[in-house]
Amino acid sequence: AVVSTQSTGEEEDPVRPRYSPVDSLGPKPLQDEAVTLETGSESATVVFGDDKVVISYNPLRIDVFASGELQISLNARGLLAVETQQLKPQPEEPAAAEEKKKKKKKK
After folding, report:
1. Which of 56, 68, 95, 99 could form a disulfide bond with 61, CB atoms 3.0-4.6 angstroms apart?
2. Average pLDDT for residues 6-15, to the nearest whole number?
3. Distance between CA atoms of 12 and 25, rounded to whole angstroms?
């Protein structure tokens, strides 16, 4: 047998009130502003109203501007190091390791 229930999210007499998240963007996000994207060989710029985000490619740098004023910059000094993923070296077979030890002892 399958039992299905529907909850309104509110208990009549809770021990602790249930967490109720608040929208971080307000009641409704603004969608009427035009967004433009400008790309080049060294950077890309996203402009929306008086605000913009500039992404520089090499070295990676992200600048966020609000009303023409720099608010935050990621990697402003160019010191962020991005490493490529590399394969982990595999351990040698026990027989091959023994052969190396024997060769070293003979020398």
Report:
1. 56
2. 65
3. 30
